[in-house]
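Project outcomes to date are best conveyed with an example. Our students and postdoctoral researchers have been running inverse folding experiments weekly, and each run begins with a structure described purely in tokens. The record below, which covers 350 residues, was selected by the lab manager from last quarter's runs and is presented without edits.
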């Protein structure tokens, strides 16, 4: 295979047919949350031997920052020889591009090409997976059968849905389990999503209830299937979603939480049923990239290191993998008659 002077690089971007492989890595809480001493993504990625793009690269590390050097680069280029020095099989890879992205943009990146790490919640939202018409309800409500069986059913469904969209969910990395929830100001006294109809008699914007979320597709589905409403608006956000509710700009939010403690301390009440029971980061690969023989051995080795790194961290930092959802805030789903009624309804629909 012949390459140009600068392999993979031309006026149309980086091309896989010229031996260039791109990895989209998320910044933010999937790397290292604000104020966090130990970041799950940062620690796990160290096990691969690769720098986490430019976020933790030191001058002596491998790779060359892309750009003219006048600003902060979020793209790091790693040569084939540097990969060989880390004992990676390179095949016909001429250059590995480590690109830092917002986590919500990674699903779109991987739909086009390359590899990436992002959350199950974002993959589900951005790729339009309908979690209320599928067997995932077995896991979300945990009301029928052993939890491990229902989790396996949902995992199988999730993987199949991604593959149908041209993305291979290679590895569930499992760190920082979180939950996607509805939340409303405590003063509204909403204890369950089904209370929205009766409790929100005067929405902040007239006759239509407004819900803010970084997950607009999932929020829309949840309002229809959980709150059983059709007269509402979804306000898409790009972060700091809680502030919209605290400023009374919206009636409620759909937001991701780990424990729910901070949200509750700020005067917001997270309620059941959960929009998504558990979300964790996944290592995903574009289907065409995965099937490209030039990249197959590298992807296999990267997966092995991520898998072994996950188990290494699980032994030494078990707190990174603990489910911290506070039951005193959310209550027991098995004792929630409304959740059970909804679960029955969704099962009948299947």
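After processing, the design step wrote out the following sequence:
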């Amino acid at each position: 295979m012949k390459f140009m002077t600068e392999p993979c690089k031309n006026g149309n971007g980086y091309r896989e047919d010229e031996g260039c492989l791109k990895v989209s890595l998320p910044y933010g809480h999937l790397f290292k949350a604000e104020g966090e001493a130990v970041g799950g993504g940062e620690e796990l990625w160290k096990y691969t031997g690769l720098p986490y793009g430019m976020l933790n690269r030191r001058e002596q590390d491998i790779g060359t920052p892309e750009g003219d050097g006048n600003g902060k680069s979020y793209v790091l280029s790693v040569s084939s020889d540097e990969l060989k020095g880390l004992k990676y099989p390179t095949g016909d890879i001429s250059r590995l591009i480590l690109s830092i992205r917002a986590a919500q943009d990674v699903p779109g990146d991987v739909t086009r090409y390359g590899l990436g790490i992002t959350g199950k919640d974002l993959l589900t939202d951005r790729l339009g997976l309908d979690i209320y018409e599928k067997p995932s309800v077995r896991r979300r409500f945990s009301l029928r059968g052993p939890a491990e069986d229902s989790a396996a059913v949902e995992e199988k469904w999730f993987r199949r849905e991604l593959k149908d969209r041209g993305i291979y969910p290679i590895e569930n990395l499992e760190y920082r389990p979180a939950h996607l929830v509805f939340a409303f100001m405590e003063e509204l006294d909403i204890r369950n999503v089904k209370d929205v109809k009766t409790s929100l008699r005067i929405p902040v914007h007239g006759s239509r209830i407004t819900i803010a979320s970084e997950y607009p597709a999932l929020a829309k589905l949840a309002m229809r299937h959980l709150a059983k409403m059709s007269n509402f608006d979804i306000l898409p956000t790009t972060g700091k979603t809680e502030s919209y509710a605290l400023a009374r700009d919206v009636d409620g939010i759909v937001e991701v939480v780990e424990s729910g403690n901070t949200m509750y301390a700020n005067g917001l009440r997270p309620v059941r049923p959960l929009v998504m029971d558990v979300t964790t980061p996944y290592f995903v690969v574009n289907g065409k990239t995965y099937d490209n023989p030039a990249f197959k051995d590298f992807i296999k080795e990267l997966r092995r290191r991520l898998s072994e790194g996950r188990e290494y961290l699980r032994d030494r930092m078990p707190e990174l993998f603990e489910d911290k959802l506070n039951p005193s805030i959310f209550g027991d789903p098995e004792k929630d008659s409304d959740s059970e009624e909804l679960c029955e309804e969704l099962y009948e629909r299947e």
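The chain has 14 helices and 14 strands. The chain has two domains: 9-118+170-176+280-316, 178-278+333-349. The training component of this project remains on track.
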